[in-house]
Design goal:
heterodimer, A: 287 residues, alpha+beta, B: 458 residues, mainly alpha, two-stranded antiparallel ribbon, globular
Chain lengths: 287, 458
């Protein structure tokens, strides 16, 4: 067996890194296994954080694996004739390998603060209030365009309507079919009707648990599609928290469109919601 | 998953098939990521299912049947007759067929049925097949009896299609729903229940599923009628469409011939009865397409007129003609009458009757009947309307009533007699306006002020 185990362990970092690089390169048969297209203007912050942490953990992973390989290789019982030596350990070494990861973790915690606040705390504002300075207490926050309520097993969607207030009579109701205009700051109010769900928009780099009893907000700005691809684009909404036996059914659709198309769509939904007449002749085709 | 909840070996296999599909096929079909799909195949390989079978309608037979077979209602011999007749008319869950009667093409479409029937798989063009078992069977059951493996967890229970009653429809009480009615339920789901929206399925898949629901409903209703027919028309122990000819020992050729002739006549007569039964059921479905109730345009209103209309609606709500408050409660919270049962329960056994014992209920539960629960009148202050919240949806609910529930249809008021009891279309609109507005009443609002303390709210 000789060197067999050391070679096997050497394959772990090679294979591990290889799979990642293969997927990043989008080569057969790993197409579509790396990050999905980012369409959120603020999404690159999350991607950068992801790559940053991936590189740190990748270096540590490769380092540890190589160290393991080196020990296996050097102290292979089949080739090593020297007697076993007992070591009491090294205090310095233990301090170093405790402090280094702790420092790295602390660094990541501080380094990501800005991204966290951008995602969770600095909700887009409508205007900077009376004092004219952004970031002060009198900023007028952008009201949510739409409320998404997770329910076993679907997304109930409620647009605020003309008055920009959710829960009033001009709200527009739909299910599983979320439309938003691109090029604007969009605030979405999310909540759960029953259990823990997670509102996950992979292409917007947004993932937020919906906690029953809590009203939360997520925000994003969809990048304007380039001219060649100007028609409405559709992306997935999925539930990222196992919420029950029908978890897999909780799939929604996010449609991006221009403000004009969005307004037209919203108006058509409003008309359908207010259908107050039914004639038999029209029933055959549509109801 | 406890043995208790999975009542039969087949239940377990549906669950397996369902898990297999949702992992493996969703990877392969939707995500084009076959390495992961293959991994699932490797893990779950060998979990083959036995052939799916329709479950007998034993609860109904027990309730309507004689006393000689108290457990399942009918003797095995008669059950076989019904099984064979149904198989001849409707085929099997894997290979459905359309009964060859008049007008059936108005209601059912063989190609669409085949898309929805059978085990979950993809055909050679990667078209998803077996849609019913993929999306519906784990609640509604392979038979459409509302008794799939996940059904006991749900409240309300999934619908049992077999009596052929559907709640949310545009047609009057007693009529079948239209195709469009069923389609709306599939697309929009039923808020307030476990029925989710299937809006994102492609149009042709929804069509196939609606067809299959109709097919199961027609099959179930036919089964009910054949059970009644067996009980009422056949001799004791006689089997439907029986080929057996009893010969006395030592019968002459002439006697044998006469017996054969009599049996043939009987056979033809029964066949005719069965055919009539099925055409009766299918005819009702065909009629429904033109039976939707028309709704006159809601009067256009200014804000003040709307307030006045709601006030009139409120008066009707609490008045003696509409008397909505009797069931929906004095504050419309759905707490007026809370000890009634729906017709799916009462049809088999009514726990509300004083002479119904728990033991009697248990006998039905042992046959797969869901443990009875009282039906709740809707809490109208939540803005959750199961059959849809468009004005026309609410109008239909009030005007037509809700099939299978204690919600009655409105009595129309004759135009020429102002003193007659009843509701005019405008009265119904007033009630619609009032009921729809209740969710915005200050009393209906949830307490405010909760929220994420880290996020500023306006």
């Amino acid at each position: 067996m000789g060197r067999f185990w050391s070679i096997l362990f050497l394959l772990v970092p090679i294979f591990g890194v290889g799979v990642f690089l293969w997927a990043m390169a989008d080569w057969w048969p790993m197409q579509g296994h790396w990050l999905p297209e980012n369409i959120n203007d603020y999404g690159h912050v999350i991607d950068n954080l992801f790559y940053f942490i991936l590189i740190i953990t990748g270096i540590i992973f490769v380092g540890c694996s190589l160290a393991l390989f080196w020990f296996l290789w050097k102290y292979d019982a089949a080739t090593n004739t020297e007697p076993v030596k007992y070591s009491h350990g090294s205090h310095t070494l233990e301090v170093v390998w405790s402090i280094l990861p702790a420092a790295a973790l602390l660094f990541i915690a501080i380094f990501q603060l800005n991204a966290w606040e951008d995602q969770k705390m600095r909700r887009p504002i409508l205007n900077s209030g009376a004092d004219g300075i952004e970031g002060t207490a009198d900023d007028v926050l952008r009201p949510p365009l739409v409320q998404v309520t997770g329910r076993q097993f679907e997304w109930r969607i409620r647009y605020a309507g003309k008055d920009n207030i959710i829960g009033t009579e001009d709200d527009i109701l739909t299910v599983n079919d979320l439309h938003v205009p691109y090029g604007e700051d969009i605030v979405v109010q999310i909540q759960s009707m029953d259990v823990l769900h997670s509102f996950f928009l992979p292409n917007l780099r947004i993932k937020q648990d919906m906690v029953p009893g809590m009203k939360q907000f997520v925000w994003f700005r969809v990048r304007e599609p380039n001219v060649n691809n100007a028609k409405a684009q559709k992306y997935d909404i999925v539930c990222a928290e196992l919420c029950g036996w029908g978890h897999y059914k909780m799939r929604g659709r996010l449609t991006m469109e221009s403000r004009q198309d969005f307004d037209r769509w919203l108006a058509s939904q409003w008309d359908e919601q207010n259908r107050a007449e039914f004639k038999l002749t029209s029933s055959a085709e549509s109801q | 998953m406890s043995k208790f909840l999975l009542r039969s070996k087949f239940d377990r296999h549906i669950l397996f098939e369902w898990i297999l599909h949702t992992t493996m096929l969703s990877f392969i079909r939707h995500r084009c990521s076959w390495p992961l799909g293959l991994l699932c195949v490797a893990v779950l390989a060998g979990c083959g299912s036995p052939e799916a079978k329709f479950r007998r309608y034993e609860t109904f037979a027990k309730k309507t049947g004689g006393s000689e077979s108290p457990r399942t209602g009918l003797p095995e011999n008669q059950w076989r007759g019904i099984d064979e007749a149904l198989a001849g008319l409707f085929g099997t869950p894997d290979q459905p067929i359309i009964p060859a009667v008049e007008n059936v093409s108005l209601v059912l479409d063989q190609r669409k049925l085949e898309r929805a029937a059978g085990p979950v798989h993809s055909d050679e063009l990667w078209v998803g097949m077996g849609l019913y078992r993929e999306h519906c069977a784990h609640c509604h059951g392979v038979t459409g009896d509302g008794n799939g493996p996940t059904a006991p967890f749900l409240n309300p229970y999934p619908r049992d299609y077999r009596p052929g009653w559907f709640k949310f429809k545009s047609t009057p009480l007693g009529a079948k729903p239209t195709h469009a009615d069923l389609k709306k339920i599939l697309i929009d789901g039923i808020p307030g229940t476990a029925m989710p929206s299937f809006k994102l399925l492609p149009e042709e898949e929804v069509e196939a599923l609606v067809q299959y629901v109709k097919y199961l409903a027609i099959r179930g209703e036919t089964e009910r009628r054949l059970i009644v027919l067996t009980n009422e028309e056949l001799d004791e122990g006689e089997r439907l469409v029986s080929f057996d000819v009893a010969h006395k020992s030592g019968a002459t050729e002439a006697e044998k011939e006469a017996a054969q002739k009599e049996a043939d006549e009987r056979f033809a007569e029964q066949l005719e009865m069965i055919k009539e039964t099925v055409s009766g059921v299918i005819g009702r479905w065909a009629e429904a397409e033109s039976a939707a109730v028309e709704i006159p345009q809601r009067p256009a209103m200014t804000r003040e007129e709307l307030v006045a209309s709601r006030q009139r609606g409120r008066d009707l709500f609490y008045g003696t003609i509409a008397n909505c408050a009797k069931c929906h409660g004095d504050s419309a919270l759905g707490d007026g009458t809370t000890n009634d049962y729906d017709n799916w329960t009462k049809d088999i056994i009514d726990p509300g009757k004083p002479d119904t014992t728990q033991e009697m209920i248990n006998q039905y539960v042992a046959l797969g009947f869901p443990e009875p629960r009282p039906i709740k009148p809707r809490n109208l202050r939540q803005g959750v309307f199961r059959g849809g919240s468009r004005p026309i949806d609410l109008y239909w609910r009030i005007k037509n009533g809700i099939e299978g529930s204690p919600m009655p249809a409105a009595t129309p008021k004759p135009e020429d007699n102002p003193f007659a009891k009843g509701l005019t279309p405008n009265d119904v609109w007033d009630i619609v306006n009032y009921v729809y507005g209740l969710q915005f009443d200050p009393l209906s609002q949830q307490p405010q002020g909760f929220g994420n303390p880290l996020v500023k709210t306006n």
